[in-house]
Each structure stands twice: as C-alpha cells, then as structure tokens.
Amino acid sequence: MPRGTDRGLAIVVLAALTGLVSACGDGGGGTSVPAPSAAHRIAVSSAAFGDGGTIPRRHTCDGEDVSPPLAFSGVPATATALAVLVQDPDAPHGAFTHWLLWNADARRSSWPTGQVPTGAAQGRNGFGRQGYGGPCPPKGTRDSPHHYVFSVYATDRTLRLPAGASADALKRALTGHTLAAGTLTGRYGR
Questions:
Q1: Residue 5 needs a FRET pair 20 to 30 A away by CA distance; which of 19, 55, 58, 163 works?
Q2: SS3 at position 31
C-alpha cells in the first residue's frame, strides 16, 4: 500500500474518533444525549389536564408543587419497569428537567397525585433537588406559556443508576432498553 494512502486513512480515522469523543457529552447539560426511541407507543394521560392543556396551579411552583396523576396504556407485557422524564423545552437556556424517575413497576397503570411509585428511584431535577419540581417559568409567560413534556418509557430491565442521577444518565441507561414510549404535554405560564 502506498505511503500516502496510510496517511489518508490515519487522517480519516483520527477525524472519526474526534467526532465520536466530542459527541460523548457536555457534563450533563441535557442536550448531548439523544432521546431514547421505541417502536411501540404508550398512551400517557392525566386526570388533571389533557394533552396540550394547561397544567393546574396545584402542580406548579405557584401551588402545592405536587406531581400530577398519571395513567398509562399500551405498556408491553414484557416490560420490567417504567421511567419518566419531565422537561421544559422552552426554558431560556435549553431543556430544563423538572422530574426524572425510573424502576417504577410496569404493571401499574396509574399513579396518584403527589406520589412516587413504590420501588422507583428519583434523579436530580434542574432545581438541584431529588424529586418533582413543578412548572415554574419566568414571570411574563402568561401569553406564551412554556410546554412541559412528560415522557414515559417502558424498559426491558431494571436500570442501574444512583439516586440523584442526571437526565443525561437516565437517557443513556434507556438507550437500547426502551420497549415503548409515550408523551403527554402540558402548558403553564405566569
């Protein structure tokens, strides 16, 4: 093989490795890890608000700041657990995480208001706390409310993450292990 070909191949390999390393993350900023995908859909609903509807004050920082009731259908019978990630894609500095939990029992078809499912672990939200932190957009957003996406994932295994894990860590753990997924989007402005 001519010497110039070896050099060209080395440059291509080096460029590919550089691209791979630079795509590995930004320390948990929420934009570096793609959302897990799934072939099957879970229907996600809430008795508190409809898809695209307004999230009641009770479930926000202006109220009791408790998680809304959630219900699921279409969870595969082979699913081991459910994970939830709630984010505000309209936040000024990129997606803001309001809630993340994993390893909830996949056989439960609903969760009541303000309750964490038995056995589930919770991660650290954008407020720096473990658990649910309700919508709390900047004041002045009443006429153009923020969107809050409740993403639910059915997994094929128990996820091994430490309590307080980040949204990026959850997304990485879900990659390749998501059997089905669905979303419910609510709005809230102040």
A1: 19
A2: coil
Q: Over 80: is that where the pLDDT of 148 sits?
A: yes
pTM higher than 0.85 for the full model? no
Q: Which of 101, 103, 121 is nearest to 163 (CA)?
A: 121
Q: Which tens digit of pLDDT belongs to each residue from 20-29?
A: 333 322 333 4
58 three-class SS:
helix
Enumerate the β-bridge partners of residue 150. 86, 184
SS3 107: coil
Evaluate whether 70 touches 184 at the Cβ level (below 8 Å). Answer: yes
**Which residue would you say has higher pLDDT here, 35 or 86?**
86
- Identify whether the C-beta of residue 43 lies closer than 8 Å to the C-beta of residue 109: no
Question: What's the pLDDT at 31?
Answer: 45
DSSP 59: G
| CA–CA gap between residue 139 and residue 142 (Å, rounded) | 8
Q: How far apart are CA 172 and CA 183, in angstroms?
A: 18
Phi first, then psi: what are they for 16, rounded to 5°?
-65, -45
What CA–CA distance (Å, rounded) separates 129 from 29?
A: 16
Nearest CA among 76, 67, 65 for reference residue 122: 67
DSSP state of 91: S
